[in-house]
Design brief:
heterodimer; A: mainly alpha; 6 helices; B: mainly alpha; Rna Polymerase Sigma Factor, Chain: A; Arc Repressor Mutant, subunit A; 2 domains; about 70% helix; globular
């Protein structure tokens, strides 16, 4: 099979738009792993259609977001241990929260925490640097005082 | 601005749960899909309902998207088209065979068919936008299935050329 004429036949476009016949789909999926130029052509055509879809995008009205959120609220959530997925709302406590038993070691926090932690880290570093400078100055002055005391003692013992 | 989601991102969202994955897809692709839906269903209120129906249906099949040959968006678009055509067919049945309002001329992909012959546009409209089978279009146009297939492929090549 001449892969270049296959690419130019329009089969890939039909595949991307979902109008390829089952035989054409099977053939393309069988050929893909063996022909890098076919993979590249598919990827390029997909990107072109995606970019076009992006250009033609129309934001759905906000009420659709509400409708979608209602749908998400109706999505099943896992319950404790038994593996069953009761509909949302049946397993909620008096406070309206769903008791969740998570085995994940990670937590998710609000993005403002990143700024807060960064500011805190910078403040901590500044304080640490200031503390070190103060310590150095303190020890330096203490050694100077000791030197002066020694000199005074020497002068006093010399007079005697 | 919407991002073109790669499968790895979707997989990582799915590992957290279906809800964040669907939410992520809605945030990124709902505008693109809504524009796509409007070419089949020009009525905005109805198109909104269909968009919700699409997300409702695809929510349970996101593993398929991760394993598909197509990119996530293209997979969603192909599956959305099937659902839209199915919805229109059901609606036609409810209306006792009366055709539902048609597609807007020069809308979405149709405006990319500049330079295509009337036959090519007709075949594209019948097969892509109305979901009619190659054989029924061939009968309608008094052509062979092979000729109709060639007309469809030629229209798709023109469309793709105009995308560049």
């Amino acid at each position: 099979m001449n892969i270049n004429s296959y690419i130019r036949s329009g089969v890939i476009e039909a595949y991307v738009l979902g109008v390829a016949s089952p035989d054409e789909r099977q053939e393309l999926e069988a050929l893909l792993p063996h022909h890098i130029e076919l993979q590249v052509a598919l990827s390029v055509i997909e990107q072109q259609f995606e970019v076009f879809a992006l250009q033609q995008s129309v934001p759905p009205p906000t009420r659709n977001r509400k409708r979608y959120d209602d749908f998400v609220d109706r999505m099943p959530v896992p319950s404790k241990g038994n593996g069953k997925v009761p509909p949302r709302g049946k397993d909620t406590g008096e406070d309206g929260y769903i008791p969740v038993e998570a085995s994940d070691t990670h937590i998710r926090v609000h993005k403002y925490w990143r700024t807060f932690v960064l500011v805190l880290a910078i403040l901590f570093k500044l304080l640490a640097v200031a503390f070190i400078i103060m310590c150095v100055k303190y020890f330096h002055m203490r050694s100077e005082v000791q030197d002066m005391k020694q000199k005074i003692d020497q002068v006093q013992s010399g007079r005697r | 601005m919407e991002t073109l989601i790669i499968k790895e991102t979707l997989k990582s969202k799915l590992s957290v749960g279906v809800e964040p994955a669907v939410d992520y897809l809605y945030s990124n692709y709902s505008s693109m899909l809504y524009g796509f839906v409007l070419q089949f269903i020009p009525d905005q209120a109805e198109a909104e309902e269909v968009l919700t129906m699409i997300y409702n249906n695809l929510a349970g099949r996101l593993e398929e998207a991760c394993n598909a040959t197509l990119s996530v968006y293209c997979w969603m678009q192909v599956e959305a088209r099937k659902l839209i055509l199915d919805y229109k067919q059901q609606k036609e049945k409810r209306l006792n065979g009366h055709a539902v309002p048609g597609v807007k001329p020069q809308a979405y992909y149709l405006k990319l068919l500049k330079g295509a012959t009337e036959e090519q546009i007709k075949v594209f409209t019948e097969m892509f936008l109305h979901g009619h089978a190659k054989e029924s279009v061939a009968t309608q146009l008094n052509k062979t299935a092979h000729e109709v297939d060639r007309l469809l492929k030629d229209s798709l090549l023109i469309l793709q050329k105009n995308l560049q």
